[in-house]
Each structure stands twice: as C-alpha cells, then as structure tokens.
Amino acid sequence: MRTVTLNNGVEMPILGFGVYQIPPEQTERAVSEALAAGYRSLDTAAAYGNEEAVGRAIRGSGILRRDLFVTTKLWTSDAGEDKARSAFDASLRKLGLDYLDLYLIHQPYGDVYGSWRAMESVHREGLTRAIGVSNFHADRLVDLSDHNEIAPMVNQVETHPFYQRTADQELMRARGVQIESWGPFAEGRNELFTNPMLSEIASTHGKSVAQVVLRWLVQRDVVVIPKSVRAERMAQNIDVFDFELDADQMAAIATLDTGASVFFDHRDPAVVSRLGNVELKA
Ligand code: NAP
Questions:
Q1: What gap in Å lies between CA 59 and CA 56, rounded to an integer?
Q2: Which of 27, 87, 177, 221 is a Cys-bridge partner for 78, taking CB atoms 3.0 to 4.6 Å apart?
Q3: What's the CATH code of the domain at 74?
Q4: What is the pTM of this model?
C-alpha cells in the first residue's frame, strides 16, 4: 500500500477503511472483511459508537498491531484538557489497544485548545503516533497550528469531486498538514455514482466510478477512507493502484467542483450550535 509521510515522519497508508454509519452489530463483520480484503488503515470515532466492534475485528484478524494504522476521534462533549485525556483512555480501552496511530479532534468546537494540550501530552507519552484535527477550515487550522507547540499532522475534511478543497490542500501542504478526505463519494449525493463524465472516464479504464474517484484523490495525494458494508465494494475500492488518470481526465474532473459542501457548512452558526452540542451516549 502506498503511504504518505506525516510531518513527524510517521508513514500513513494513503487508502483505508471508514466505519461511519456502520451499526455496531455489523461493524465486526465489516471490518473483518475489510482486513481480509487487504485494508490496513481503519478510521473510527468515539461518536460512531463502534470502537469496541472495531477492536474485536482487529483482535480476530491475527494481523500484527504494527502492520495496522488505527485512527479514532475525540467528540466535542469531551473537549477540554482533562475530559479529552479521559476520552482518549476510554477509546483506547474500547478498541483494546495500547496505542493509537492517529487521534483527531472530530469537530472544531468547544475547548479545542484544552483538547489539543491533552493530545500533545498523549503524543509525547507515545500513546498515539500522530495527532490531528477534522473539519477545521483554514482559519481555525492556522490559529491552532500557530499557537501550540505541535502542529496537527492531519486534517480530515469533506473532500470529493463536488467539493475538491484544492486551495485548502495547498495551505495544508505549505504548513505540513496532510489532507485526508472524508466522504470521498459524497455518500452518493448529486448522483455521483452515475455521473456521465465520471462514468465515461471509468469506462475508458475498465473501472467503476468509485474507483475513478478514489484514484483521482490518491493522485492528488489525498488520503482516502471509503466506507462500504459490502465485500465486493471493499475489494473494488482498494483496487485503484493499477491504472492512472491522465492530465485531461484530471482536468475534466476538476470542473465538477462546486466549492461548497454537499452536507453542511461547519461555519454555519446553526450547525455550530447543533453539532457542537451533541452529547455522546454513555
Ligand atoms: P463515502 O465513503 O463517501 O460513501 C459511502 C457510501 O457509498 C455508502 O452508502 C456505500 O454503500 C457507498 N459505496 C461505497 N463503495 C461503493 C462502490 N464501490 N460503489 C457504489 N457505492 C459504494 O461516505 P462516508 O462513509 O461518509 O465517508 C467515508 C469515511 O470518512 C467514514 O466512514 C468515516 O470513517 C469518515 N467520515 C468522517 C467524518 C468527519 O466528520 N471526520 C464525516 C463523515 C465520514 P454500502 O456501504 O452499502 O456499500
């Protein structure tokens, strides 16, 4: 698997498996199938409610811990230095691991500075190999980076053909922050899977639209973590390293950018208030 090198030298697989919206009772099976299909990077979150099931699948796989790259995320109701530390310990316990590969602040809300100090601590203690953020727009990312000892190594943000984040990626690159896409397929919105242009490009390579989208992201050096509960799609989504999009195809896909989220804007005050106040179930 191709990797990217984070700003502290840690190697992260460029393609992994996301488990958002996989119900806990389906997660062990899905992750076991993904590991069998060759995925070695897993992306979960405290807020997904399926960390324990991810942990069971890891243990059941027999794969060496050092061959896996495991990411989880801190939810906003656990923001702040002390609460973030406890939440980190709880996530580690639920996953059944003794260290993480990447720990992310899930949303740019609440006491992110307190949370970040806790994350710097667990990183210094060797309990997570890398730390980062998610859903941080450029202003918040720059502010957090400039006023702390350790700058985020990763920013996981919505990135797909309809919201391409090229300027954000440039800013992240200039500051040594690796961009990671969530929702690489826009969760199928805007009829992505039947888009005529993407379908045409896919047919020239004998690939699916999903594979073209993932290949386009990987060629842009964007880390991807597609989600599927179906084994045949898991296999398809990891099989994107045997073809290349040419410059014309890359340029054509660039025209699909709308420059806006297909879900919601993390800076919208109504979203800040709604999402920022979601409490995790115990
Ligand atoms: P996504 O990967 O863009 O789309 C998943 C959807 O695409 C599912 O409905 C899946 O259906 C379908 N699909 C997958 N492969 C396909 C294929 N080859 N052909 C046709 N349909 C296919 O959406 P996502 O799950 O939101 O994003 C991926 C990961 O990013 C998440 O799982 C999570 O780890 C992370 N994420 C993070 C945040 C954040 O705030 N940090 C937010 C959202 C997501 P089936 O499952 O039925 O195959």
A1: 5
A2: 87
A3: 3.20.20.100
A4: 0.98
